[in-house]
Every structure is written in structure tokens, then in C-alpha cells.
């Protein structure tokens, strides 16, 4: 027999209610007093379908469509009676520097002992904008680094005895299995680990490879055709810009095979060494010339913030922050349907958050702690809205006790379990387990530790500030006859993710 509501909805409400109402060591009577408000799957679908409508043009950060969606969310918060969360306003404005590569300007040529080979833009490689200049051309030797990690805990340092000064690093997306789920996600990350390591060692660029099909070449190409965003730090300098890395290239599968055909290490040998994690960093005996033209700009977008005040006179000054990113990928360059509606990514998370907020705001017994609900901007551009709030919170940072994040809430199948990324590495593990027990669902481990989801959504900037955070996802267990949730999920990632077909034609179990 299936649950009456999708399990992630029940779990999200239960976890937020418990976090907002319990002390660290609650008595059994206090725990029993926490009620789980009812929540409507139909109401969630109504929000999701509207936010994923063509009217909002894919909700790219700072765009007209995004700002319309932000006003919709703010109106919903106001209708619930939630207090504006930023000094009397529902909006917290974030300023961005942007960089967009001119179509047709990407060029990649690789010289070997056999001569030169030019690679086809968007077919064999693509690239993202940097802030190194508007006209960029870099010629440098290539050095293969495997995963490109420096992880003392497992005595793995891919940079040891490697000269990267003035060179381009060739790095495989991923990190060693021995690191575990959340730690592995950190070492997998270009932003948080690999780019700082490369820049500090004098590399002038990076070429990323992905030999495992854990995301599609199509998604990589579509992403590279949209502008890159940087938020500004307190000195108005773009954060995570890594100015020393002048070029950032992604080799697509066909291009990667051709690249290694010219090196002393074949593609098959490289892939096998990564799978076995016995690779050896080495000079490839190749020199690449990478060129592109970048148009810079600036834009602003808003986090949408509302507060449900807690009922306890003391605990109401402590806050649980619930987040879901409102922005999507915007408009593509295809002929025909080029609106990346972002139905699952992430109108689903925002719609769920809105109904969680309504359920808690109208519950007979309100939570003891206050809850801040944030529809964030710029997650698709690098978690930028969440990072801005975490570094510029609207309440004292020490008063934030936890973050609960909702991203890509999958209603493609009738799940019986949930995944709580980050829980076991924080003080939230026990509360999360009590929440699953309370609603009668199973808690499952990360099904894809190699994909690094823990650092790829809005909970991670809170973790960087020392705030316990958890990211909820739908699990892969079901009783539906003939349904394979993992296959459905992988099909979504390969065929719909960050594309025009992530829309309301997809199944939505409610």
C-alpha cells in the first residue's frame, strides 16, 4: 500500500516541524506534541505548473521572467501572513557580474608530434566564460592530473612533484571513492577544491573530462551557452573568479577520445586508470591553444525571504532556514521550444516549500522556533543567492540553528524512502531519523556519491558558515509494479535535465 502523500512532502514537513520545535535532547512527550500538518499534493502541483509556465521564460536569474516569479512567491508568502524577511521587504537584492561567450568564438587547437588538430565547438568541446579578459587566447602544455585532488586524509596528492606553472591542467570530474559521500563531493568540486589548487600552483587553464555518463553532454553544452555569473564580495570583487585560470574547457566524449589519441595515454587506458584509481599524473606531450571572446555585463536578482515567527518567547529568536532555488536555466538557442521551464529543477522545490510554509503557518500548534523561508536566486549560476544570504544574513548568523534545502523534488514515481544529504556529518542526523520514524518512511544513503550532490545545491553555503544543513531528495524504493526509479531518474538526467523538456508534460505523482 502506498503512502497517501509523496514521502518527501511528509518528510519535509516532519523534519522542519521537529527542527523548529525540539530542543537538542527532547523528552518523549515533547516529541509526541509535535504534530505533522496536512499538506496538499494538488496545491504543490498548482505552484509548480505555474512557475514552470512559459510565461516565466525559464526564470533565469535576474531576467524579467525570474522577477515575475519572485513576485509570485512574495505574494504567496504575504497571503499566508508571513512577515517580510529583509527589513520590511520580501526581497534581498544580489548584484552579479556576468560573462557571456560570443557564439562561434570558441577555438581549441592541440599540437602533437603528428601535427595540429582543431576541435569542433559544441560538438567536441565547449567552454565557460572567465574574467581574464574580453579577448582571450592561451597557448600552453597539457598536464594530466587524474582527479586533481589533494586529500591528506587518504594520502592522495595529485599535485605532488607536478609542475603546473604556465600549463593547462587536464582533470577528470570526480574524486576518489574512499572519501565517502559528502567529503567526496567537496573534493570533486571545481569551485571549492580543484580551481583553488590549480590557481595556487600557477596553472593558466583547465580542461575537464567526464568519462562516466553521470550527466549528459547536451546539458553541458546548454549550460555553457548561457551567461556565467559571479556575485560580488564586500570589496566588490567577483567571488570564485579564479583570475589565474584564464580558460575553462569541457571536453565532450568524442573530443576527449580524440585528445587522448594524440597522447602517450589512450582514452581507454585513462578511463581504466580512473576506474581503478591507479592513475599517474603526467605530461601529455601536447600543447593546446584555446581562444574565446567574452562579453561582460552586470545584472541584479532577488532572494525572496519570509519569516514565520516561532511561538516560544525564547526559542523564537532562533531560526531554521528553509531554502529552494527559484531560478532556472532560462532560454536556450534551439529552434522551436527553447524555454527551459525548470518544472522539476526547481519549480518542484519552490512549490513544495510554499506548501510546507502554508501548512506550518496554519497549523493548530505553531513551531516554537522561527522559520525563514527563502526562494533563492542564482543557484544555477553557482549557489550565488544562498551564498549571499549565508554571508549577509538578515538575522544574526549565530541565531540560525539549521538549514533545510529542497531541490529537484522528484514526483516521477511513488517512493517509499528519502535521502538526506549532509545529515550524518552534522548534528541533524538524530532529528532526521526521528522525522523518518514519525512519518513511517525509510532513510536511505546517497545513491550516487560519485556525483557530488552535497556541494551542488544551496545547503552548502550554510555548511561553509558552520550551520548544520540537510538536503532532502526522493529515494529509489517503490512498490509500483514495473517501475525502476533509478532508471527513471537517469533518463530524466540524460534527456530532460536543464533542457526544454523539463516541463509539466512529465509525470507528477501527487
Secondary structure topology:
Layout: H1 7-21, H2 28-33, H3 41-51, H4 64-79, E1 83-84, E2 91-101, E3 107-112, E4 115-119, E5 125-128, E6 135-144, E7 150-151, E8 156-157, E9 168-172, H5 181-188, H6 190-200, E10 205-209, H7 217-224, E11 228-231, E12 247-251, H8 253-261, H9 267-276, E13 282-308, E14 319-325, E15 330-331, E16 339-340, H10 343-361, E17 370-376, H11 384-391, E18 400-406, E19 417-421, H12 429-439, E20 442-444, H13 460-464, E21 469-474, H14 485-495
Parallel strand pairs: 6-9, 9-10, 10-12, 14-17, 14-18, 18-21, 19-20
Antiparallel strand pairs: 1-13, 2-11, 2-13, 3-4, 3-13, 5-12, 6-13, 7-8, 13-17, 15-16, 19-21
Helix pairs in contact: 1-10, 1-12, 3-10
Question: What would you say this structure looks like, in words?
Answer:
The protein is built from 14 helices and 21 strands. Helix 1 (7-21) packs across helix 10 (343-361) and helix 1 crosses helix 12 (429-439). The chain has helices spanning 7-21, 28-33, 41-51, 64-79, 181-188, 190-200, 217-224, 253-261, 267-276, 343-361, 384-391, 429-439, 460-464, 485-495, and strands at 83-84, 91-101, 107-112, 115-119, 125-128, 135-144, 150-151, 156-157, 168-172, 205-209, 228-231, 247-251, 282-308, 319-325, 330-331, 339-340, 370-376, 400-406, 417-421, 442-444, 469-474. It starts with 6 loop residues before the first helix and ends in a 15-residue tail after the last helix. It has a 17-stranded mixed β-sheet that branches. A two-stranded antiparallel sheet has the order 7-8. Strand 15 (330-331) and strand 16 form a beta hairpin. 29% of the residues lie in helices and 25% in strands. With 510 residues, it is α/β, with parallel strands linked by helices.
Amino acid at each position: 500500500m502506498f503512502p497517501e502523500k509523496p514521502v518527501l512532502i511528509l518528510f519535509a514537513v516532519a523534519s522542519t516541524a521537529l527542527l523548529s520545535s525540539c530542543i537538542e535532547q527532547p523528552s518523549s512527550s515533547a516529541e509526541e506534541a509535535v504534530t505533522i500538518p496536512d499538506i496538499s499534493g494538488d496545491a504543490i502541483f498548482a505552484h509548480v505548473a505555474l512557475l514552470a509556465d512559459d510565461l516565466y521564460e525559464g526564470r533565469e536569474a535576474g531576467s524579467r521572467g525570474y522577477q515575475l516569479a519572485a513576485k509570485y512567491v512574495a505574494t504567496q508568502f504575504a497571503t499566508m501572513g508571513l512577515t517580510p524577511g529583509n527589513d520590511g521587504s520580501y526581497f534581498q537584492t544580489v548584484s552579479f557580474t556576468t560573462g557571456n561567450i560570443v557564439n562561434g568564438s570558441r577555438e581549441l587547437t592541440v599540437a602533437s608530434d603528428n601535427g595540429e588538430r582543431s576541435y569542433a565547438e559544441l560538438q567536441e568541446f565547449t567552454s565557460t566564460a572567465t574574467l581574464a579578459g574580453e579577448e582571450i587566447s592561451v597557448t600552453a602544455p597539457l598536464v594530466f592530473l587524474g582527479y586533481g585532488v589533494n586529500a591528506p586524509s587518504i594520502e592522495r596528492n595529485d599535485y605532488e612533484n607536478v609542475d603546473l606553472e604556465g600549463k593547462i591542467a587536464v582533470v577528470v570530474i570526480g574524486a576518489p571513492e574512499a572519501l565517502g559521500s559528502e567529503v567526496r563531493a567537496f573534493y570533486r568540486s571545481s569551485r571549492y577544491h580543484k580551481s583553488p589548487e590549480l590557481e595556487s600552483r600557477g596553472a593558466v587553464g583547465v580542461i575537464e573530462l567526464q568519462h562516466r555518463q553521470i550527466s549528459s553532454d547536451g546539458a553541458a553544452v546548454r549550460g555553457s551557452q548561457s551567461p556565467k555569473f559571479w556575485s560580488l564580495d564586500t570589496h566588490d570583487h567577483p567571488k570564485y573568479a579564479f583570475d589565474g585560470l584564464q580558460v575553462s574547457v569541457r571536453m565532450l566524449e568524442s573530443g576527449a577520445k580524440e585528445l587522448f589519441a594524440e597522447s602517450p595515454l589512450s582514452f581507454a587506458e585513462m578511463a581504466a586508470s580512473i576506474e581503478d584509481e591507479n592513475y599517474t599524473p603526467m605530461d601529455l606531450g601536447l600543447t593546446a591553444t584555446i581562444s574565446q571572446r567574452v562579453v561582460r555585463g552586470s545584472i541584479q536578482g532577488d532572494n525572496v525571504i519570509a519569516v514565520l515567527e516561532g511561538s516560544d518567547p525564547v526559542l523564537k529568536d532562533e531560526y531554521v532556514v528553509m531554502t529552494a532555488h527559484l531560478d532556472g536555466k532560462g532560454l536556450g538557442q534551439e529552434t522551436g521550444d527553447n524555454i527551459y521551464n525548470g518544472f522539476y529543477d526547481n519549480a518542484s522545490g519552490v512549490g513544495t516549500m510554499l506548501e510546507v510554509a502554508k501548512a506550518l503557518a496554519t497549523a493548530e500548534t505553531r513551531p516554537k522556533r522561527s522559520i525563514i523561508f527563502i526562494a533563492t536566486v542564482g543557484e544555477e549560476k553557482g549557489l550565488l543567492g544562498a551564498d549571499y544570504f549565508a554571508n549577509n544574513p538578515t538575522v544574526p548568523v549565530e541565531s540560525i540553528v539549521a538549514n533545510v534545502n529542497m531541490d529537484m523534488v522528484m514526483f516521477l514515481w511513488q517512493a517509499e524512502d528519502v535521502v538526506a544529504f549532509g545529515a550524518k556529518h552534522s548534528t541533524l542526523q538524530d532529528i532526521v531519523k526521528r522525522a523518518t520514524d514519525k512519518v513511517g518512511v525509510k532513510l536511505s544513503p546517497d545513491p550516487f556519491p560519485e556525483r557530488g550532490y552535497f556541494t551542488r545545491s544551496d545547503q552548502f553555503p550554510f555548511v561553509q558558515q558552520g550551520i548544520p544543513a540537510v538536503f532532502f531528495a526522493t529515494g529509489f524504493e517503490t512498490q509500483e509494479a514495473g517501475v525502476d526509479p533509478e532508471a527513471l531518474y537517469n533518463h530524466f538526467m540524460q534527456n530532460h535535465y536543464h533542457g526544454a523538456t523539463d516541463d509539466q508534460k512529465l509525470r507528477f505523482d501527487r
